[in-house]
Specification:
The protein has 216 residues and is α/β, with parallel strands linked by helices. It has a single domain (2-214), classed as TIM Barrel, CATH 3.20.20. 33% of the residues lie in helices and 20% in strands. It has helices at residues 15-24, 47-53, 70-79, 95-104, 151-163, 181-187, 196-199, 204-214, and strands at residues 2-5, 29-35, 60-66, 84-88, 108-113, 131-135, 169-173, 191-194. It has an eight-stranded parallel β-sheet with strand order 1-8-7-6-5-4-3-2. Strand 7, helix 6 and strand 8 form a beta-alpha-beta unit. Helix 2 (47-53) packs parallel to helix 3 and helix 3 runs parallel beside helix 4 (95-104). The longest helix has 13 residues, at 151-163. The chain is globular and about 40 Å long. The structure holds D-xylitol-5-phosphate and zinc ion. Zinc ion binds at residues 6, 31, 33, 64, 173, 193.
């Protein structure tokens, strides 16, 4: 299991240092939650801020766009140094054009689905994307409770990926910690996003180690 700490729970006055701290703690990916106050009822940061912190780690920058028009801003996040850009299948942009734009910039593209969106919503795009992100909370805020009823959806997507023999990984996001990460792994999750459970832990390095170990 790869662990992607969600920087949404970090001390933003030390954004760069927090990324460095997560790198040293053993994070595999840096999960950056971008919210526009329109697609979700919260606002975080955009590409200019991301550009400032990019150099604080060489790890994969996994950018989760919770914005209404990802096509409009895709170039900005590619320029800012994203390695993977995921955007919501429920957004207002043309999905095919947005995938094409991201891939044309040499960045990996992924699709995200909210809890009420069925697995089948991403099936038409699976052969062109690198990741499916399954939300295990309603997007917008950190610190919510894990929705275990999303795990059958993970299994369904995993089965489709395997059936079609595709190279697509599954990420899960929201409420993940030591108590449920093994269930995620068993359902087929490859990358677990963890905000609260890493940042509120007395020792983030230990928290990451324990979560990885629980999945072995
Ligand atoms: C929620 C974000 C998540 C969230 C995870 O909209 O996409 O990445 O910050 O935080 P926790 O682990 O606290 O649920
Ligand atoms: Zn996220």
């Amino acid at each position: 299991m790869l662990i992607a700490p969600s920087l949404l729970s970090c001390d933003f006055s030390q954004f760069g240092k927090e990324i460095e701290r997560m790198d040293l703690a053993g994070a595999d990916y840096m999960h950056l939650d971008v919210m526009d106050g329109h697609f979700v009822p919260n606002i975080t940061f955009g590409a200019p801020i991301m550009k400032y912190v990019r150099d604080f780690s060489d790890k994969v920058f996994d950018v989760h766009l919770m914005i209404s028009d990802p096509l409009k801003y895709a170039d900005d996040f590619c320029d800012a140094g994203a390695d993977i850009i995921t955007f919501h299948v429920e957004c207002d942009s043309d999905i095919d054009k947005t995938i094409d734009k991201i891939i044309s910039r040499g960045v990996k593209a992924g699709l995200v689905i909210k809890p009420n969106t069925p697995a089948s919503a991403v099936f038409p795009y699976l052969d062109r994307i690198s990741m499916v992100l399954v939300m295990t909370v309603e997007p917008g805020f950190g610190g919510q409770s894990f929705m275990a009823d999303m795990l059958p959806k993970v299994r369904e997507i995993k089965a489709e990926i395997e059936k079609r023999n595709l190279d697509v990984i599954i990420e899960a996001d929201g409420g993940i910690g030591l108590s449920n990460i093994k269930d995620c792994a068993e359902a087929g999750v490859d990358v677990a996003v963890a905000g609260t459970s890493v940042f509120k832990a007395p020792d983030p390095k230990k928290a990451i180690e324990e979560m990885k170990k629980a999945c072995e």
